[in-house]
Design brief:
With 338 residues, the protein is α/β, with parallel strands linked by helices. The chain is built from 13 helices and 10 strands. Helices cover 45% and strands 17% of the residues. The longest helix has 25 residues.
Length: 338
């Protein structure tokens, strides 16, 4: 039997929380294949995975040398047998009731020969020490409960962009897109959420809070202090996203608009982080990012640089830089991200 869904769990040094992720996805029978990709962990991550595999035949553990988050996702994709694929980071988890609704929806679409290329669901920020949980939903941008093409989508709000946590791809779409994420690089989830979209012809938005995105640990890759130490990797991913949008032909006007929306957000994040670093070198890097884009793709530069976010993140002078960072802080508090 071909599984309906493969859940890929990239796991590195995850013994403390892998069990929570696995508890949220096991027990659904042969419909759900669970692949724990142990990315060269030196703790008991693999042992935790094998303990679950002994009790749940749908769980497999794939151990490999350390290659980073992208490498682990690549390995999961290589071994996935499911019609659909979802990535769940080892420190996150899924809502089981919502997962049941996802499976019922996918099952019905496949049975009726309406299998879509992408299923979109909501995700919830589970921030350490924050009682009020913030959910990112796509109402307004995506009509609910129907098969869509990009032409039926509407304008995405600034806080609405399709992060990895919201996406369940048809596995063949990822393969047809030739998706291979960079190794030993953080923040590649942005590439996962962008690169395959030109292969997506049909979507379905299921308005359930499926993914629980755990943030706020001091050692987490999306913690601001960590991101400031890894600015080179943020900028590498940012540039790969810009190159993809620049070089990929997209005929659908609304998909093109969404891709621009996404890279506007990521360029703004990169710019603000470089401002936060506050060193002469980081300010030079910020100028270089925009100058390089202006040289290599003047049209894309104009669209991104002179968007609302592009302008906010490039206010002139020391006072402007302070205002840009302040705007970012307001967004952090409003949305609840790290």
């Amino acid at each position: 039997m071909t599984p309906l869904l493969t859940v890929v769990i990239p796991a590195y040094q995850a013994e403390a929380y892998l069990g929570r992720a696995l508890d949220s996805v096991v027990g659904f029978g042969a419909e759900v294949e669970v692949l724990v990709v142990d990315d060269g962990s030196t703790d008991a991550t693999a042992a935790v995975g094998h303990a679950y595999a002994e009790r749940h035949p749908e769980v497999r553990v794939l151990s490999k040398p350390n290659g980073g988050h992208g490498s682990a996702i690549n390995t999961g994709l290589d071994h996935a047998r499911g019609t659909y694929l979802k990535v769940v980071d080892a420190d996150d988890w899924l809502d089981r009731q919502a997962l049941g609704r996802v499976l019922a929806t996918l099952r019905e679409l496949v049975r009726e020969e309406r299998a879509v290329d992408l299923l979109v669901t909501n995700f919830v920020y589970e921030k350490v020490g924050k009682r009020t949980k913030t959910a990112v939903r796509y109402t307004g941008a995506l009509p609910r409960g129907r098969v869509l093409t990009w032409a039926r989508t509407r304008r995405f709000a600034k806080r609405q962009y399709l992060m990895m946590h919201a996406l369940t791809y048809r596995t063949q779409v990822l393969r047809d897109a030739g998706l291979r994420l960079p190794e030993h690089t953080f923040y590649v989830d942005n590439l996962y959420a962008l690169v395959p979209l030109h292969r997506v012809r049909t979507l379905f938005y299921l308005d359930v809070d499926l993914y629980r995105y755990f943030i706020g640990r001091a050692d987490q890759s999306v913690h601001e202090a960590v991101m400031l130490r890894r600015l080179d990797q943020q900028l590498r991913v940012n540039w790969l996203m810009l190159q993809h949008v620049s070089r990929t032909e997209v005929d659908d006007r609304r998909l093109r608009r969404y891709l621009l929306h996404y890279v506007e957000i990521i360029c703004a994040v990169s710019s603000i982080l470089l401002l936060r670093a506050g060193t002469p070198a980081s300010l030079d890097q910020k100028d270089l990012l925009w100058a390089r884009l202006r040289t290599e793709d003047p049209w894309l530069y104009r669209r991104v640089r002179w968007s609302v976010l592009g302008q906010i993140s490039n206010l002139p002078g020391p006072a402007g830089r302070h205002a840009s960072v302040l705007a970012y802080r307001v967004a952090q508090r409003a949305i609840g991200f790290s």
